[in-house]
Amino acid sequence: MARIFITGSTDGLGLMAAQLLLRQGHTVALHARNNTRARDAHAALPDNAGVAVGDLSSIAGTCDVATQVNDLGTFDAVIHNAGVGYHGRGFTALITPKERAQ
Description:
The protein is an alpha/beta fold. The chain is built from four helices and four strands.
């Protein structure tokens, strides 16, 4: 069986993937953005191989998570599930005021 690390595994698709993989007999390590989510993930999946805690929205946070994961050992696969939330409709266009006036 494989050792798998899943980012963003405290709810939604990440948690469902972790549940399925654990039921199939794989070893799964989890990731949580903060300690509250880490406790919730550990409670939902007590047979996990560890929970790395950190916010991946910054380089420093990502490096800290990477250090924690490396301390857990080697992995056969990583599921990059953590993402940026959708906060409404809109976009930023890089146009000049002159182009905007046309």
